[in-house]
Amino acid sequence: MSLNDLIFLLPEIILATGASLLLIAPVTGLRDSISAKWAMIALLIITAGSLLACSWAVPGMEQTAGFARMFALDAFSIFFKLLFLFVVAIVVLLSDDFLRESRYSTWEYYSLLGFALCGMMFMASGVHLATIYIGLELLSLSSYILAGYYKNEQKSTEAAMKYFVLGAVSSAILLYGISLIYGVCGTLNLLDIARALSTVVSNDALMFGVILLACGLCFKIAAAPFHVWTPDVYEGAPTPITAFLSTGSKAAAFAIFVRIFYVALPGFHLDWSMVLATVAALSMIVGNLAAITQESVKRLLAYSSIAHAGYVLMGIVAMNVMGLRGVLVYSFVYVFANLGIWSIVLMMKRHEYAGEKVSDFEGLHSRSPFWAFSMFVFLLSLGGIPPTAGFIGKYFLFYAAVQAGFGWLAIIAVLMSAVSMFYYLRIVVAMYLRDGKEADVTASGALKFVAAVCVVATIVFGVVPNDLIDQVSSSAKGLHNKGAVTRNATR
Amino acid sequence: MIPTHYFLILSAVLFSIGVCGVLTRKNGITIFMSIELMVNAVNLTFLAYARQFHQLHGLIFVFFVMAIAAAEAAVGLAIFISLFHHKETIDVDEANLMHW
To answer: Which of A163, A179, A201, A218 falls between 20 and 30 A from A245, CA-CA?
Structure first.
């Protein structure tokens, strides 16, 4: 390790320092002179700028594994890091009203959000199981606290407790998986693991380790047998934090899922693909069927996010170029549709637990047609209907599954997408065909801005997806080449 | 020298005891202790392998895991205290405001 390695970490160093400063700001004189929100947004902009600068400064994207090959600054990680920065910036905008009304300290809140982001960025860049695990824990520990931030509300505390207990158990399981893989391979670096595995025939300890690792990761993305925490945590957590958990934290989990399975374990694809395919099918079925009967919008979206985890898993199971691109495209378009929906839900807010019944959306069209239309677009995007961006994501994933010989999985996915339209349209019917109640939409400028950005992005990326696809292809290239190299070595 | 698989069997047993504790206990603190047992069982696995390979990787990983477990304890106990404020108990079955 040399001082040059520090350039890899510069954005994270800036972010971690900034988050620490936000934490101590209230006890210094800074408290009155600037607002926490703008300090946080400035920090995010500086981090994004330094990230772009570093990515240009680091030449030769393939060998960019600094710190004794623990940390990569490749195109794949930059794609995800910029996505995370965007998500957190949007969450900051969404949090403004919530923090003003609840009167909890804003500084700690933004500081925790900053640390969570730092963890996510380490996850995106980690090419060593130690880096990945520590990033994951930094994200998780910050999320537990944020889920319980509404601490005078019993629901929020309950959500934090459930999230913490189940999250800690799943981390321990994941860790056991890592330790067994270490025992078989003698290394924790993903490329070295792939190299070591090319000489090992499949053995029980390895399979057990991979399955435990997959269990831990499936918990983080909320896939089916490990999904029970999702509805409760999403319902109990403050709505901006729910938005964060369902987009940013999930995308980060997908990033490490893809990195581990595409880079370290491609040689054992046959062994784990059936297991993950079953998990994906189960997630789609359980998530979509359970969402039908939900009355609370937050729970409905929680179940739909379980189903979406299933769709994305198809891309990982498929293990081909299309699948890899599909995961990236889907994470990207899903972020816009979901954040848009949460901003509309926050607009409906009437009392502390905001506009959370499907019936709260009744008559939205007559009161504010534009926001009703935006909500319609977001729901279409989640359902994967053509003129919206969600279709592009689903197209890649379904195509990848068929290409890889998982036709049955694609059929389940298509059927379940049809089921999902049923409950998305329930909200649409409530908005357009039912008579409204007296409650009106109280939208602050920030919420309007977020919803408008998301609706424009959802339509634009749906109509002209070429730029997005080009970008994703170049981001995915590095990762897949690496996978291909190790796979050839296996043969 | 004690063979590595002795340690591995011990750590598998400890991990299983931890899992059983999490599944059967109702007191939040006891559940948390069981989780710590699981994490420490994993630490033992790492140490056993690191000793077998004569490597530092596994040893250093254990330090990270211990630091993270400490941070987890801080967060977890704070959440349980917050729960106690609402419920006057940390029985996890009592936290039943939200279900299906």
So the answer is: A179
